[in-house]
Fold:
Amino acid sequence: MFLEQVSTDSILSAFIYVISAVSVILVLVGLGMVDAGLVRAGNVLHTWVQKFVTCFVGGLAAFLFGDAIWQWQFYSAFGTPHPLRQALSDWWLGSAIMAAPAITLDPKLVAGADTQQVFSVFFVTFAMATVALVHSGTAERIRSAPLYAMAFVIGLILCPFAAWLTWGPLSPLTNAGLHDFEGAVALYVFTGTWTLVTAWRMGPRAGVFAPDAEGLSPAPNSYASVATGALFVFMAIPLIALGSTWIMPGKGVFGITMAQTGIGVVIKNVFCALLGGGVSGAILAAWLREPVWVFFGPIAGAVMTGTIFDIAGSLESVAFGVLGPVLAVLVSRVLVRLRLDEPKVAPLAFGPGMCGSILGGVLHCGTATAGFPDLAAPYIVGHAQIGAWMQIEGVVAIMLLAAVPAWVICRVFEATSGLRISRDCEREGMDATYWGRRQE
Structure:
């Protein structure tokens, strides 16, 4: 037995990741409530069904090999022979390490076993959030079969690969100078690109850009649901941010890229961004007479600041938060001009998500990042420097990683069973079509 695996420090570290992992579920609830409030009344039930099943499929797929693929970066840096093969062997869902109590695992072989096992769940919930956002950007139009196929492919391969490439202290792009504290590039840029491609292939909902011959049009059924969902997301974001830290008792607190930070710094910056975005969103909502920006404003502020929660200053976080909703509104207007019906995820991705990542690279150019304790060159802590060009490269890489498979899957279903729901389904409502439930 290895009692150091269940020391007070080890248990507290594991518990922090438990809180972060469970908090992502609050985001899933929030997204479900937002989507259910914004769809037509005859689509609410099926929207919830698709949200649940999408998360189940994507989460289970990610559980199989997701954490193992992410661990690949560590096995490579530590010089493990055949690093990908060994990481898959050690950390796939059915491995001996994943099944063993922490106290039975030698810390020389598996340091912080409880924390690593819990982190695999945090990684799974990250994948669930990814596919939940994909559903949010395609709700009311997409058939279930292509949606679930997308969730499976994203959870099994694409989400883990995006995280391996861009998120972590030893990921390939982090080692070149990319900095992304909360995975904003791997999450928002990925999902925004995916939903934009899918929205393009499906076409707009009836009545969005021009009057429909039968009078169909988008009709939010409950702003109360939207507001409540946004509050769930607001509540979860600070707790999720803790999961992107390395907490090393007696040594310090570091962001996911090993940039030095503190728990207080991270939480303070999160709230600065949320509140700045909230005020900015409220002003925009009043000016545009679009109440949805009151609820999306804080989220846009957090997305804008997510890459630098660990290294930003307080006023910088407020400024980023204020700017986030403005950029989201601008992108939403561009998408309308392009007649692309994706008003939720893509504006966050291509406004605050992309711009926040690049602007953060500009303002913090030269700040030390990447590496891991006890490793020598070229992986010594702080061996890389943040740079704007690497932020741009990271954004472009993730856009390509999402756009190509999204297009391929769309084309496959267009040529077979269909990507978009039928006109009859859109007219009658998804609840009536699939579940025999008509809105009273």
